[in-house]
Specification:
This protein is α/β, with parallel strands linked by helices and about 280 residues long. The protein is built from 11 helices and 6 strands.
């Protein structure tokens, strides 16, 4: 019998292949590789071989990114809600986007952003002085519903009308759901857009009122040096998670690249890079 997370990881990789996110073109170059870098191609080929990626047309443009976001959301949805013994609650995992009615301001810690947005829309001078610094848009979010007093008092009489009248978790206080995690999905890190994840993180940190959510990045980038550009350092992003870290480690060893091996060791030993299978349990902290 296979563990739930192990099975979810296997299915996650299968879906990446089936949906054309991880592919190998006619020249043998995987879709997450930088064709101008021999080391990137070599490591990406090693990962793809271990995941049994076949030759297939690569998804075009933003389609790859959107599918990667969707599959990361599905992986979290298939795992994290099962950890009720570690992190009880009524959880929702969803992918944000322009057509989604849920925005960052839909959560208790950021509801004031909607008010700021309306103010700046009506006042050009205020908009110019504030800029768009407060606008953040995570790819995938995990959030928790508020709880009724009956649930809070289920095992012991904890609260009544005389106390805890401003608590975010309490449904009777009339607050919004609580943002638990912001997950940014970057299939590769070959452009400055990968640093948008850091910008989003800083926006979440600076503009929150209350509890800071988990802020993480999931990537398929094969080059350790490029992963390090986002993973190294602390204070903004909790951790970077690789879609196939075990396979990445083996592929880097196989490539016999000393610098890449050393950087990968620094990232892993320093707890700045983990496998996608670590993410559900880390979200339970």
């Amino acid at each position: 019998m296979q563990a739930l997370i192990a099975e979810a990881r296997r299915k996650y990789h299968a879906e990446l292949l089936a949906n054309g996110v991880l592919t190998i073109d006619a020249k043998g170059i995987p879709s997450n590789a930088d064709s101008s870098s021999k080391l990137s191609v070599s490591i990406a080929q090693g990962i793809a071989r271990r995941l049994m990626a076949g030759e297939q047309e690569k998804a075009v443009g933003q389609t790859t990114g959107a599918k990667f976001e969707q599959l990361n959301m599905e992986f979290i949805d298939a795992t994290f809600p099962h950890l009720q013994n570690l992190r009880p609650g009524k959880w929702h995992i969803t992918k944000l986007g322009n057509r989604n009615s849920i925005k960052t301001s839909s959560f208790a810690q950021y509801e004031h952003l909607d008010y700021l947005s309306r103010l700046t829309k009506d006042d050009a001078r205020l908009a110019a002085s504030m800029g768009n610094d407060y606008m953040v848009a995570p790819d995938v979010v995990v959030y928790r519903e508020t709880e009724p007093d009956e649930f809070i008092n289920a095992h012991q009489f904890i609260v009544d009308e005389s106390v805890s009248g401003l608590s975010d978790i309490r449904k009777t206080c009339g607050g919004l759901p609580i943002l638990h995690a912001s997950i940014s999905a970057k299939w590769t890190m070959r452009s400055d857009r990968a640093q948008n994840s850091r910008t989003e993180a800083l926006g979440l940190i600076r503009n929150r009122k209350g509890h800071l959510p988990h802020i993480v990045v999931v990537t398929g980038e094969p080059l350790p040096a490029r992963i390090a550009s986002l993973a190294l350092g602390t204070g903004d992003i909790d951790c970077v998670y690789h879609f196939a870290l075990n396979e990445l480690v083996e592929a880097v060893k196989e490539a016999n690249a000393e610098d890449a091996t050393e950087m990968l060791h620094i990232l892993i030993s320093g707890k700045r890079l983990k496998d996608i299978s670590d993410l559900p349990l880390d979200l339970a902290v």
